[in-house]
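re: ur question from earlier - yeah i can do the single chain one, its not a big deal. heres the input i used so u can compare w yours
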Amino acid sequence: MTGGGWLTFGFVIAIGLPLTVLVAVICWPERTPEDRTVEAIRRRVENEDAP
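and the output i got, formated as C-alpha cells:
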C-alpha cells in the first residue's frame, strides 16, 4: 500500500470501528431479568389473587 492508502485505511478503522461498536450497543437487545418476564408477572398476579 502507498502512504495515502494506509492513511485512508487508518481513517476507516478509526471511524468505522467505534461506529460499529456504537451501533451494536444501541441495537443489541437487553436481557430481561427473570422476575420481569411475562410468565413471572403472571405467576405473581395469580398468587396475589389466590385465596
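The chain has one domain: 2-49. not sure if urs matches, ping me
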